Amino acid sequence: MSMRRVAVVGAGMTKFVRRSQETGRELSWEAVSKALESCEMSLDQMDCVVMGSAPDAFDGVHMKAEWLSDGAGAWGKPYMRGYVGGGTGVFAPAQGWYHIASGLFDTCLVVCEERMSPTQPHPQAAFNSIFDNFTERALGPNLLWIFALEMNAYMNRYGLKKEDIALVSVKNKRNAADHPASLLGDPNITVQDVLNSEVLAWPVQRLDVSPITDGAVALVLAAEPVARRVTPKPVWIEGVGWCLDTAYWTNRDLSYPTYVEEAARMAYKMAGIKEPRKEIHIAEPYDPFDYKELHHLEGLMLFGKGQAPEATARGVTQRTGDLPVCPSGGLLGVGNPIAAAGLMKIAELFWQLRGEAGKRQVPGDPRRGVAQAWGDLMQVGTVVVMGK
Amino acid sequence: MSLLNNLEHPTDARIWRGDLPVYHRYTAGVAGEKFLRALKDQGAVYGTRCPTCGYVYVPARLYCERDATHLDDSTWAPVGPAGALVSFSAVWVDLDGKRLDAPQWVGLVRLKGASSVLMHYLQTPTGALHAGMTVQAVLKPANERVGSITDIAYFKPL
């Protein structure tokens, strides 16, 4: 394959909040403005725009990418929306990447927006119809059923205790205390706090879960010649991958995300990575639930099956550890405006690899990172590898 | 061949009924909030003029979609209440396709001073309408205004 090199040259995000006064359009514009400002580029220098946003039902606007387009800076430009549910935030930069890698465009503005707060009585209700009519909807399920059953399957398979998993939530919420845009950063949270929080659907408790959030994130992508003109510190998109498992979620291996492994293999091959644990210095796996970070670290082949909890307990995944994981604070700490949360992970790698992450900066001059998201009917894995 | 092709009574086919049990709380936004308050409290329609490209947005917006310029407080100014009729129609069916007893008149109006165009109700005309003619916003009385675009009751031809 002959494809052009593509770099991230700018990034911006809004604060992640429980309910924003800004409309989704206004949030999108704010993220776009900050991203353009960060690389001193203007909207007319953007050749095309990619919008990532999860279910229309959240904003309550059908075809919401069209509605969001003015805030995203899409007026008069080639524009498309990508949508793979929760996986969208890491898929959108992959779309931006192939817009440029293909030679079609030299620059691309990638914008991800989510407002969950408009959905009443609870965003859960918007998911009611994703369940199979034949076998599941009659039972009145909500998403927590899937997560509780999957988490318990993972715990049973490897003999894990709640304490082993709660460590992830504690790490990420503490990391998020250093993120200026975070919703749930807490420097003092403990494992006991997580274990004492209310049970939602055993074994899932309140502090095992990321919050309902509003926010937006934007990136500026550029082809190599443009990137080198714009910044001395481009961060390259070295590999992208995505993969879908069966929609019959009950038939999957609930203790191992094979679809994440397949997506990672695609991205690693493109990036020339043969030993991910040695060649990747920072990971931002998708962590809407604490057990999912562990699940996904294993799917990304950064730890063996069932071994991520033990590495977490040893401090390997701390910001100062051997493989920092979610130094941003992740979805559990920064917040989870679905598509925007995934793109926040790409922005975090951008800032970390440029040495611009401030108090969150991972020590030791990290050179390569991986971000991953998960979504659709809990069956899609999306992966992006970035390096400097 | 689908089952329904051969069914004498289509309701005999097994179906599930369902709906999406959601409703929404839409946020007016930073600019929208200010626009609607001015409409309700002052009876004024505000626009924002982009200092970069000169486009005047009505209702007022926080940013210019053409160049991403921030439209701050200094860009706000009242427009109208008169404007030019851009297009119009008499609507004879409702949302469910039911025939109306009398038509609902609607139009597109470019308020004086605005670049953008607003859709709204028109007063039932007594004479012929034509594109380019002057129409004027008729507001509801102050005590009936709630902070909605329908605080403008309709536009009447002048």
The number of distinct structural domains of chain A comes to 1
Shape of chain B: extended
Q: How many individual helices of chain B?
A: 1
- Architecture of chain A in CATH? 3-Layer(aba) Sandwich
How much helical structure, as a percent, in the residues of chain A?
25-40%
The number of helical segments of chain A is: 14
The span between the termini of chain A is: 22 Å
Give the end-to-end Cα distance of chain B, rounded to a whole number of Å: 61 Å
The Rg value of chain B, from CA coordinates, equals 22 Å
Q: Strand percentage of chain A, roughly?
A: 15-25%
If you consult CATH, what is the topology of chain A?
Peroxisomal Thiolase, Chain A, domain 1
Shape verdict of chain A: globular
β-sheet strand percentage of chain B: 25-35%
Tally of separate domains of chain B:
1
Structural class of chain A: alpha/beta
Describe this structure in words.
Chain A is an alpha/beta fold and 388 residues long. Chain A has 14 helices and twelve strands. Chain A has a single domain (6-120, 211-387), classed as Peroxisomal Thiolase, Chain A, domain 1 (3-Layer(aba) Sandwich), CATH 3.40.47.10. In chain A, helix 4 packs across helix 14 and helix 6 crosses helix 11 (290-299). In chain A, 61% of the residues are buried. The mean pLDDT of chain A is 96. Chain B has one helix and nine strands. Chain B has one domain. Chain B has one helix at 29-42; strands at 23-24, 45-49, 56-57, 76-79, 82-93, 99-111, 118-121, 134-139, 152-157. Chain B has a five-stranded antiparallel sheet, with no helix packed on it. Chain B has a three-stranded antiparallel sheet with strand order 3-2-4, covered by helices on one side. Chain B has 158 residues and is mostly beta strands. Chain A binds chain B through residues 19-23, 25-26, 29, 32-33, 36, 42-44, 57, 59-60, 69-71, 73, 75-76, 115, 117-121, 125-126, 128-129, 133, 137-138, and chain B through 16, 18, 20-33, 62-63, 65-68, 70. Strand 5 of chain A pairs antiparallel with strand 1 of chain B.
